Amino acid sequence: MDLLLVEDNPTDRMAIQARLRRAFPSAQILAAWGPLQLHEHLKRDSCDIVITDYWLGWIDGLSVLQRVRERWPRTRVIMLTGNGGEEVASSAFKYGLYHYLLKPDGFDELVAVAEAAMESKRREDFHELMAMIVNSLPDGVHSVDAAGIITAANAAARQIYGYEDTEIVGRTNEILLPAGRRGEIRRLHERAFGGEIVPRFPTLQVRSDGAEIAVAMTILPMRDSGGGVSNVACITTPDWQFDSRGSRLKRAAEGPAAGTASVPSAPARIEHTTLARMGKLRIGGP
């Protein structure tokens, strides 16, 4: 944990630092008591938590908050204030304040709030990492909820289907399905919502321009924190082994058939079972 304390009152600064060091012995705890120190610390690449007083002799906490969020957009900022707490907080929350505490009573809550802030940042970092991983996959991945609405799509899926993110998310999954395949895919989604992994199978999908493309698809249940299946993940690979009727063909030596979408090639496909093991994503079985 990297933590920056912005406090010009030496007594308060020492008291807060002592509490934080006891609670987080392995953390790097920096302090800024004037503009020079703050300027130097803001040159760092990152910081997890900033704790700032509102009433500083050389700047106010709202300005500190704005500068911190400009430099480190995902840093959690906790503000301490001696009076006018509600009024100060209402303005600060508009700029991304994580929490505020009243001095001096709030000192007793500071460690717990800092722990919660760090856990919040870890979750955000994890979700960003998972989004980067999913967007790096060569296979298309899109999720569908129980109402049949597309809730997310990675970069490869958007390329396969020819949609921008804002054009596909929030729309019915049936825009991707030929009329003759909709009943089949609905039944497979029902199996996945029942907790079953639907193994790779050949099918057809529809691009934004109306062209049908042959694909291989796997459908996985996605479990929420309570263990229920809230979405299914459709993992799609354009499959040049199948023609537009779904009949098996020999793979064309010259590459994708005319009129089909191209996707980034990869030396080796990431196994779908790898997705099923991705910890907190809870993709797959119980």
Please specify the SSE layout and strand pairing.
Elements: E1 2-6, H1 10-23, E2 28-32, H2 35-41, E3 49-53, H3 61-71, E4 76-81, H4 85-92, E5 99-102, H5 107-136, E6 140-145, E7 150-153, H6 155-161, H7 165-168, H8 182-193, E8 198-206, E9 212-223, E10 229-238, H9 272-276
Would you give an account of this structure?
The chain has two domains: 2-132, 3-Layer(aba) Sandwich (Rossmann fold), CATH 3.40.50; 137-281, PAS domain (Beta-Lactamase). The strands form two sheets. The chain has a five-stranded parallel sheet, with helices on both faces. Helices cover 34% and strands 23% of the residues. It has 286 residues and is α/β, with parallel strands linked by helices. The chain has nine helices and ten strands.
CATH architecture label of the largest domain:
2-Layer Sandwich
What's the total number of strands? 10
Number of helix segments? 9
Name of the CATH class of the largest domain:
Alpha Beta
Strand residue content: 15-25%
CATH topology of the largest domain: Beta-Lactamase
Gyration radius, in Å: 26 Å
CATH superfamily of the largest domain: PAS domain
Mean of residue pLDDT? 84
The ordered string of helix (H) and strand (E) elements is EHEHEHEHEHEEHHHEEEH
Query: How would you describe the shape?
Result: elongated
Spans of 5+ residues with little confidence (pLDDT < 50)?
A: 242-286
What structural class should be given to the helix and strand makeup? alpha/beta
Helical residue percent band: 25-40%
The CA-CA distance between the termini, in Å, is: 33 Å
Integer count of domains: 2
